[in-house]
Amino acid sequence: HPKANDAIVGTHGRSIYIANVEHIQALGEEILNSDLHAFDVSKVRYSSRWGTSNIFRPEPSEPDISIPIFAKSDGKAKISVKSKDLVLKHWESDISKGINYLKYNGEIEEKYVREFEKQLNNSEKKKKEDEPIEVKKADNDRYYLKPGKYTVVIEAGGKSVEKSLEVTERRRR
Q1: What is this structure's pTM?
Q2: Residues 6+ apart with CB under 8 A from 111
Q3: What is the pLDDT of residues 36-69, one digit of tens each?
Q4: What does the buried/exposed string (b/e) look like for 12-35 if buried means 16 or more CB atoms within 10 Å of the residue's CB?
């Protein structure tokens, strides 16, 4: 489908498959010749319910952030999520030659939480009369990103690329 960048396949067994092909369509000579390329990361809407569960959802809810990259060869990637110069989360992932979708659940490492909280409270956007921003531990013993703009750094095969990640405010009712 040209507007949605989806490939739609129907089978004789009454099944239908829909796959987004936006990143495949973007593969041009420049990307195919690069050792490492990162595609844009979709915006994520903040939820105060991240890390909580209830009787209808026994598993804690978490954001499902996909970081799409193209790698020219197999290997390991080091991924960091930063707020300004403060690293909030760092992990490694195996990658394969071609398009990869690295998963991130919005978690912040506990050792960086207090520094992140200070950064949020010293932000130019925060007004002095606003309540202090607290980064609280969720029910699943994890800390999560707050609304704002972050940088995702991917390192693989001696190359490094950066993309922005935006967590937007939840809609007001």
Answers
A1: 0.85
A2: none
A3: 999 999 999 999 999 998 888 888 899 999 999 9
A4: eeeeeeeeeeebeebeeeeeeeee
